Amino acid sequence: MVTFTVRAASRRYPVIIGHRHLDRLPQSLRDAGLDGTPVIITNPRVWRLGGAGLQRVLRRGGWAPVVLSVPDTEHSKSLAELGRVLTRLAALDGHGRLFIIAFGGGVVGDLAGLAAALYRRGIPYVQVPTTLLAQVDSAIGGKTAVDLPRGKNLVGAFYQPWLVFSDTAWLAGLPPRQVASGLAEVIKCGVIQDPGLFALLARERAAILAGRPAPLQAVIARAARIKARVVGADERETTGLRMILNFGHTIGHAVEAATHYSGRCTHGEAVAIGMRAATALARRLGCCTRSTEDRLNDLLDAYRLPAAARGVRPDAVMAALSHDKKVRQGRLHWVLPTRIGHVLVTPDVPSAMVQAVVHERIRP
Ligand SMILES: NC(=O)c1ccc[n+]([C@@H]2O[C@H](COP(=O)([O-])OP(=O)(O)OC[C@H]3O[C@@H](n4cnc5c(N)ncnc54)[C@H](O)[C@@H]3O)[C@@H](O)[C@H]2O)c1
Ligand SMILES: [Zn+2]
Question: Active-site residue 246, yes or no?
């Protein structure tokens, strides 16, 4: 088991990562200072996989949870679903003090976190992430949000959880594509800050892809620690440090927007393509060597992450990039690797170069 603390300006809280350690959750809730009635926000798929176990452990530990299920789709991150969740929380008023347990992937976590931030101007919540992406990324850092028809995550709040409790045993039920998608964010963490993590990912590839608990937990904990450190130092993205977490996301987000978040490309796959593209830009600009670029591409290949987006129009990706630029006061921020374990952030990448790289990596 690995435990560390997120030291954000607004709150300090523990991240606990282990394998088959759910029986520790009841005491961890108490240690986090929680009391009252836990409201588990989840979806039917996650509940089928682990709900009975979670409920049993909580009851045995003296908690009396209430379960509130939302549909298993990105559309649950909507104002309508948020409204339904808040209304259902209000209906539980007779249960005394409430706190939320977000039990699921990033969708459940983002929605439940925002509901916690808003209900009665803020009630405590706990993240119990069940996807690899959520365990290394979305459950940590307090970004909560729902989507609007115009775009993703447009309505949200920075609201830190009281506790993040990850059990890598949940991940056994994830489809391989979801696992690879989460591992793209782990690879990202290696590139931006941790050459040792990058080397571990290369060395233990077979064991990690086979789902062996020890190496999987090791890389999850290392990536989660990086996320925790970065958001601890720059909770609200004011110093610019948090921006390094966006390595691979400039083009990655544009690919997702160009495919209308259809799921044709998962978030991690889009980020993998974005990391390849950003590294190609870095090499063309002379920021990194060809050997750095080759090492990253080889590792992404080894984790079966795509080399290019297929069936996506390059001009749609360019249009999404230019929309992003408009929203950001005329500047895109490119996170470019200088070597494995270090990146720089720059707005200055010639657009002809971007266009050339987009055409290499995005195939209609
Ligand atoms: N808040 C942040 O900082 C942040 C960061 C990155 C991404 N996000 C958000 O996270 C969301 C994506 O999260 P995600 O990739 O976890 O997707 P998700 O929550 O949709 O989960 C993916 C699928 O896996 C299922 N699932 C969950 N746990 C499972 C398990 N243990 N076994 C089998 N299936 C399981 C889910 O029901 C769903 O069908 C996006 O909305 C994105 O915007 C937020
Ligand atoms: Zn991401």
Answer: yes
